[in-house]
Write a structure and sequence with these properties.
Layout (H helix, E strand, L loop, with lengths): L2 H20 L8 H14 L5 H10 L3 H9 L10 H15 L5 E6 L5 H12 L6 E7 L2 H9 L1 E3 L3 H10 L10 E4 L2 E4 L7 E5 L11 E6 L8 H14 E9 L14 E5 L4 E4 L3
Helix pairs in contact: 1-3, 2-4
Bound molecules: S-adenosylmethionine (SAM).
């Protein structure tokens, strides 16, 4: 048996152990990137083999957050792909205005960049006070970071530029103050945000959302898991509610394709069809 095949078996067993012991389910994530990230974890955590890492994980719960840190990718930006946020502003917001109250779910919110972008956009459009935001992720550290609302000051120039390109109506600097090399975002932005540990792989749907933004998460999943997640979105959206995906993601091959209509195809924004 080649070393490569043996490694695949060890990785499958490790993912199985992670699921059985801690209920984190990475078994249906795209294998190439899981492998890459587990190799880095094994090296940096000083385990000889994946089997040794598996044994360590089974017996030492303190290893779990460290391994999860390697398995989940936290790359994000505020107003990432500004044209997406511009399309929300120009095309989706006019529909959302017709609701007396709104629920928005940011699934896979990472350290909060996408969440703050949406809260600021809703504030600029005068919808923040009637909106409840749900920000979810499986990475506890990322959720804690999102809740703290601190971002390195050297990222602010990019965020400001993105905000401007997204049709921003105010100055981003209105929403943060600089402290200890960090931009600290105004806690009032978090007043109507519920942060929750929720997995698209194992948890249930949320109810009655008008907008779900889940960007750059499905790309890490295999087809069956993508279908599970999109099924949750379908069940969580009100009729005619909106779903926004990342620039490299699409519903084209989804089992649930027929439940959605293209709304702004270039920005991967879909609308839930009525029954
Ligand atoms: C690359 S980040 C995307 C951040 C942000 N949505 C954006 O587009 O900039 C992917 C996020 O998905 C989260 N994630 C991975 N698997 C998940 C799952 N099963 N359920 C919920 N979130 C998950 C990761 O922890 C990470 O925070």
């Amino acid at each position: 048996m080649t070393a490569e095949k043996l490694e695949d078996i060890e990785i499958r067993l490790l993912l199985e152990a992670l699921h059985l012991r801690y209920h984190y389910d990475f078994r249906n994530y795209a294998l190439a990137s899981i492998k890459r990230r587990l190799r880095v974890a094994r090296e940096q955590l000083n385990f000889e083999t994946f089997s040794a890492l598996q044994e360590g994980l089974l017996h030492d719960p303190a290893l779990l957050p460290r391994v999860l840190g390697y398995l989940t990718i936290q790359v994000s930006e505020m107003f990432r792909d500004p044209s997406y946020f511009l399309a929300l502003r120009e095309r989706v917001i006019p529909h959302l205005r017709t609701y007396p109250s709104l629920k928005v779910w940011v699934a896979g919110c990472s350290d909060g960049e996408e969440l703050y972008s949406l809260v600021i956009l809703f504030r600029e459009e005068g919808l923040d006070e009637r909106t409840l935001f749900y920000a979810t992720d499986i990475n506890q550290q990322a959720l804690a970071n999102a809740q703290a609302g601190l971002f390195s000051l050297d990222r602010i120039r990019l965020f400001t530029e993105n905000h401007r390109k997204s049709g921003g109506k105010s100055s981003l600097s209105d929403y943060y103050s600089a402290a200890y090399g960090k931009a600290s975002f105004d806690k009032r932005l978090r007043q109507r945000v519920v942060f929750a540990d929720h997995s698209l792989a194992t948890d249930a749907a949320f109810g009655e959302m008008q907008l779900i933004s889940c960007r750059n998460v499905l790309i890490y999943f295999k087809r069956p898991l993508q279908d599970r997640a999109v099924g949750l979105f379908k069940d969580s959206l009100v009729r005619n509610g909106f779903l926004g995906l990342g620039a490299k993601e699409s519903l084209r091959f989804s089992d649930h394709h027929s439940a959605f209509a293209d709304f702004v195809p270039s920005e991967r924004i879909y609308q839930r069809r009525g029954e």
